[in-house]
Amino acid sequence: MTYVVTEACIKCKYMDCVEVCPVDCFYEGENMLVINPSECIDCGVCEPECPAEAILPDTEDGLEAMLEINTKYSEEWPNITVSRDPPADADDYKGKDGKMELFSEKPGEGD
Ligand code: SF4
Ligand code: SF4
């Protein structure tokens, strides 16, 4: 089992999650974060910290595609352990459906 960042994070990227992860397993893309499933220790601490409710356990149904994205991009994007300010328009995208089409494969800045 692991925790997974879902499309709810796209363009929100509040980053509250990275500060609480005991094993620093968040990785930063241009407009979302992902969790490295092989590093996540399933502690669940990050889940309630996310204002966008974007973090879920992979035991929930329908997360197969997002688990693949977390696995793939956590190998390519830089590690992030310290939060920065969220995008200025983050709240405009909070809770919106269909954000997957806005997904960017580009890496973020990392720490
Ligand atoms: S707190 Fe939630 S919305 Fe913010 S970066 Fe982490 S997973 Fe994404
Ligand atoms: S469940 Fe725990 S180890 Fe996994 S990403 Fe969240 S805080 Fe990190």
TrEMBL record:
It comes from the Bacteria. Pfam families: DUF3470, Fer4. The keyword Cell membrane does not apply. Transmembrane segments: none annotated. Residues 91-111 have a biased composition (Basic and acidic residues). The keyword Nucleotidyltransferase does not apply. Residues 78-111 are annotated as: Disordered. Residues 1-30, 31-60 form the 4Fe-4S ferredoxin-type domain. Keywords: 3Fe-4S, 4Fe-4S, Electron transport, Iron, Iron-sulfur, Metal-binding, Repeat, Transport. GO terms for molecular function: 3 iron, 4 sulfur cluster binding; 4 iron, 4 sulfur cluster binding; electron transfer activity; metal ion binding. InterPro entries: 4Fe4S_Fe-S-bd, 4Fe4S_Fe_S_CS, 7Fe_ferredoxin, Fd_C, FdxA, RnfB_subfamily. Its cofactor is [3Fe-4S] cluster; [4Fe-4S] cluster. PANTHER family: FERREDOXIN, OXIDOREDUCTASE. Ferredoxins are iron-sulfur proteins that transfer electrons in a wide variety of metabolic reactions. This is Ferredoxin. It comes from Parasphingorhabdus halotolerans. The lineage of its organism: Bacteria, Pseudomonadati, Pseudomonadota, Alphaproteobacteria, Sphingomonadales.
